[in-house]
Design brief:
With 250 residues, this protein is mainly β. The protein has strands at 4-6, 9-13, 18-22, 25-30, 34-36, 44-48, 55-65, 69-78, 81-89, 101-104, 111-114, 117-118, 130-134, 139-143, 146-151, 155-159, 165-167, 178-187, 191-200, 203-211, 226-228, 234-237, 240-241. The strands form five sheets. It has an eight-stranded antiparallel β-sheet with strand order 1-2-5-6-10-9-8-7, with no helix packed on it. Strand 18 and strand 19 (191-200) form a beta hairpin.
């Protein structure tokens, strides 16, 4: 396996079969995709041009990237639909690997598959691992000095690049201090999360807790449990207060 890099962008071939659909029509189907880390947090799939089944029509638009060069914008046409400005090619990129590849806007297409499994939000990073482990550690969560959760039955989720998250049974959480919100987020490893704010006296701590009601298979152990942002609450493990981690969620 070879890797190409320029600046902060890394390019690697993948062995997965990847497919993308628009309006029920196959847009691309490849067994030789490339993963491109345009951002440090997760990769994007690029398809060999030969494996693109949809018609790509160049627009007058280009998009410049300091690392990838000048991108030519295309509309994506299938039988009954058009995704406007949904594809990019880099025929003169300073990264030669990109010359014959096509990048699709994830949200512009309807369905993505890795092998025969649907994948959501963005491609799974091969260097990210999820471990959800039952524990008997004593977890106490406080906000503004008020105990909002106290449990000796956590499931601790270890995810590459993030601090451990403590998923606690609902019965061990002060639900009277939580207010369900309209926020939802998606994760390709865990599924769709719903959120709660905490109301402590006159203070409202927005979207500080979340749960996955129906997580994806690799995270099924956290189903129906609530976790809090370690970055925004005081967490005590076996009586010892943890330092608040510094992450993108701080």
């Amino acid at each position: 396996m070879t890797t190409a890099e320029r600046g902060r962008v890394r390019v690697e071939p993948s062995a997965k079969r990847v497919r993308a659909y628009l309006a029920g029509e196959l847009v691309a189907d490849t067994t030789t995709p490339y993963l491109v880390w345009e951002k440090p947090y997760y990769p994007t799939y690029y398809f060999p041009r030969r494996d693109v089944k949809a018609t790509l029509t160049p627009t007058a638009e280009t998009r410049h990237s300091p690392s990838r060069g000048e991108g030519i914008v295309h509309d994506v046409h299938v039988k009954d639909a058009v995704a406007t400005a949904a594809a990019l090619t880099y025929p003169s990129s300073p990264l030669p690997t990109l010359h014959s590849l096509v990048r699709f806007e994830w949200d512009a297409l309807d369905e993505w598959f890795e092998e025969d499994e649907p994948v959501y939000v963005h491609p799974r990073d091969p260097y990210t691992r999820i471990d959800a482990l039952s524990s008997s550690r004593h977890i106490r969560v406080e906000i503004d000095g008020v105990v909002i959760a106290d449990s000796t039955r956590p499931v601790i989720l270890f995810e590459t690049g993030l601090p451990p998250r403590h998923y606690l049974p609902l019965t061990d959480v002060r639900q009277d201090l939580l207010r369900h919100t309209d926020l939802t987020t998606g994760c390709p490893y865990k599924g769709t999360a719903e959120y709660w704010s905490a109301v402590i006296g006159d203070a409202v701590h927005e979207n500080i807790a979340w749960a996955y009601r129906t997580p994806l298979p690799e995270s099924r152990a956290v189903a129906g449990r609530i976790a809090f942002y370690n970055e925004k609450v005081d967490v005590y493990i076996d009586g010892t207060q943890e330092d608040r981690p510094r992450t993108v969620f701080s």
